[in-house]
Amino acid sequence: MGEIAGRLIAVAAREWDFFRRTTRHIDDRWDLGANLDEPLHTARIGEYWDAVGRPDWDGLTPEPWSAAFISWCFREAGAGDAFWGDETHSVYVDRIRRHDRMSEKLVLHDPALAIPRAGDLIWNARGERDPPQGYQQALDQLDAGRFFDSHVDIVVAIQDGVCSSIGGNVWHQKVGGSVTRSDWLLDASGRLTDPRKIWIGVIGNDLRAHLQNLERIANSCIVRCAHSYTEHHMKGEIT
Predict the structure, then answer these.
(1) pTM, whole model, 2 decimals?
(2) What gap in Å lies between CA 35 and CA 69, rounded to an integer?
(3) CA triplet 211, 126, 93: central angle to 5 degrees?
(4) What are phi and psi of 59, to 5 degrees?
(5) pLDDT band at 210, cuts 50/70/90?
(6) 190 vs 68, 142, 148, 171, CA distance in Å?
(7) What CATH class is the domain 2-234?
(8) Which phi and psi angles does 39 have, rounded to 5°?
(9) For the segment 167-179, what is each residue's pLDDT rounded down to a tens digit?
(10) What are the extents of the domains in the chain?
């Protein structure tokens, strides 16, 4: 599972590079890369949709694709039967908490208690239809069979009180979407405290001892991606 988590970070970082490194900084400044309506990226989002059984959908399909992105990343990382993805985050998170065709090494934790690590998933509520305001409310809704709007990112690095994560269908306004790297504030204990989101879960690995090198893997991959982008830009392949 440690190897899968490492590959998950590498896959997410590669897609972030492909989408020209859209970034949301800790002070909420944005560096904008590729949007979902650019032809190459529209097609790539179609590959994400294929991972959840939607082969005819792509980046122009008017549906949120962030859960498809996470599901595709797990597939590309070689998770196989350890992760049963879905086009809705709350559906596959519910499977994780119940260990329903999900590896028992994927464990849902209360974000008020858990310290996210590289290779984990961080889960936040979103939307305008009475989203849960915390971990217990999220569990209550899942227990009632209500699958609500939410979002999940892959943690790629923890450094200097900041959690860096990568997720899909993230943009600086409601219309549009990219694969985006975001920085989130942690408290002195290392728990998520950034007020920009309603944090409702951290999905971690029990094999934490095997993940000690993940932050190094993430940072080196991001550096390689940056070098690759610079080389392509200098050659005139990216404008």
Answers:
(1) 0.86
(2) 15
(3) 45
(4) -65, -20
(5) very low
(6) 28, 27, 27, 26
(7) alpha beta
(8) -50, -45
(9) 999 999 989 999 9
(10) 2-234
